[in-house]
Each structure stands twice: as C-alpha cells, then as structure tokens.
Amino acid sequence: MLNIKGLKVKLEEEDKQILKGVDLEVGAGQVHAIMGPNGSGKSTLSYVLSGRDGYEVTEGEASLDGVDLLDMDPEERAAEGLFLAFQYPVEIPGVGNMTFLRTAYNAQRKARGEEEASAAEFLKIVREKAKDLKIDAEMLKRPVNVGFSGGEKKRNEILQMAVLEPKMCILDETDSGLDVDAMKLVSDGVNALRSEGRSFLVITHYQRLLDHITPDVVHIMANGRIVKSGGPELALEVEKNGYADLMDEVQ
User: Fold this and answer.
1) Are 7 and 48 in contact, with CB atoms under 8 Å apart?
2) Which of 36, 149, 172, 182 would you call most buried, defined as having the most Cβ atoms within 10 angstroms of its Cβ?
3) What is the SS3 assignment for 212?
4) How many CB atoms lie within 10 A of CB 51?
5) Are 191 and 183 in contact (CB under 8 A)?
6) Burial letters for 80-110: b for 16+ Cβ neighbours within 10 Å, e otherwise?
7) What are the angstrom distances between the C-alpha of 41 and each of 11, 19, 121, 222, 224?
C-alpha cells in the first residue's frame, strides 16, 4: 500500500534537514503507529506525504499502490486515495460543511473519471455516514469547524474520511487536545472505517490512543529516522519508561 524508501527532506526556508532517511512500508489493511519525542520528524513525514509546501525532498521515494506520490500535486494525491487528518483542523467561515464535503467528493470523482453525485444522492450518502459514526446532523449544517469543540473538529475529519473513502489514512496526532470521552468517540469512528482495503498511519505522542486503535506495528521515530519497530507492546514500553532507554539502545 504505502512504501517509503530512504526519504530525506529539508525545510526550504531554513535549509534544515528534518527527515534523514525514513524507510516504512504499510501493507493493505494494516494500522501502523508512529511515536517519538518532539522534533523527531513525525508531522513532517505526514506533511511531505500529503504535499504541503515548504519542504524539499532531497532523496528517496514514496509511493501508494505503486504510484509515485512525490511528483503529484496535493489534490492528485487525494484523488489517488491519500487522506490527512490534521492535528489542528482549520476553521473555514462562510463555507458550509455539506458544501465542503460535496465539493471534495465530486472533485475526487471527477479526477477518477467518474460521474459527479447530485445534491440528493450526496445528501443520502452523508446522512448514512453520519449515522454510522453517530454524528449529529446539526454538524452538517454549520460552517466547517467554526465553533466546534476539539472533539467535534476531529469527528468532523473522521466524517470527511468516511465520505471520501481513501485507501491510505494518515492521522497526525488526532488525540491532541481531546478528553477521554472525545478520544473514545474519534477512535470508534476510525475503527468503524478499518477494512482490508484501507490502511492507517497513526502519529501520536501517547500510548492511550492505541488503547482504542490497536496497531499492527508501532514505530519509534527519532532524529529524522525510524529507529525501532515492534508490536503494540513497544508503545507500552515507551509509556512506562519514556524514550531515553530506547535512544540508548540505538545509539
């Protein structure tokens, strides 16, 4: 599904190397988690995969189902099946949730050569997805994320994910700023979308999210590289002992 080899990336403005040779392979239907201390390059990896400006790939490759992502514009990557859930979802005043979702949905259908959905067809799709995720229909009538709580913003992104049905979902610290109840609701939404044809890359600081979204593989990232990988027990080890012992192991 997602294949990253020797990926090196620097910040364009500062000429600073952030990723220093990332190797990662996420198979179809798998959930991988990335943990690591601040400044290790976790969010940079998500930004580069999604096509955010300000970063220069100096070496390496990244592909989704064999298709090179790095030569694509962000919207092309989205049409190819890549989705990024932000750590801090932005508010878009004046743009209704339904309008935003339908525009994104039809843009991707058009990019794949498919017929656009009518307003009635799309309304049925969204209502079904919202019901499955236990999302209040009132959220659909409001401007995108405006006046939303932290939990509502994250649940709104899960709804976007459900509507767009991506192949590869990247969650950049989705648990950031969530209380226990909100994190459980978001996790339930993610688990409802798990399937053999959809993979997840979950970036998080804390093991507590992985109590609800059980990963197949946990990676530890430090100094721009993945330095150790293992099963869910690796996240428990980090939660108990921190990163210091792991860093000593790999030096």
Assistant:
1) yes
2) 36
3) coil
4) 18
5) no
6) bbbbbbbbebeeeeeeebbebbbeebbebee
7) 11, 6, 41, 7, 5
Strand residues in 29-126 grouped as ranges (E): 31-35, 55-64, 67-68, 82-85, 92-96
Give me the residue spans of the domains in the chain.
Answer: 2-250
Beginning with the edge strand found earlier in the chain, give each strand of the sheet holding 168-172 in spatial order. Answer: 82-85, 168-172, 199-203, 31-35, 217-222, 225-230
Q: Are β-strands 199-203 and 67-68 bridged in parallel, bridged antiparallel, or unpaired?
A: unpaired
Looking up tokens 């209502």, which residue turns up? 127
Q: Rounded to an integer, what distance in angstroms lies between the CA atom of residue 100 and that of residue 112?
A: 19
What would the two tokens of residue 141 be? 């009538």
Residue 31 CB neighbours (<10 A): 22
What is 2-250's CATH number?
3.40.50.300
What residue type is assigned to position 172 of the chain? D
Task: Print pLDDT tens along the chain (251 aa).
Answer: 899 999 999 988 787 899 999 999 999 999 999 998 888 899 999 999 999 998 999 999 999 999 999 999 999 999 899 999 888 888 999 999 999 999 999 998 998 889 999 999 999 999 888 887 778 888 888 999 998 888 888 888 888 988 999 999 999 887 776 777 777 877 887 888 888 889 999 998 777 788 888 899 999 998 899 999 999 888 888 888 777 766 665 55
Which letter does DSSP use for residue 90 in this model?
P
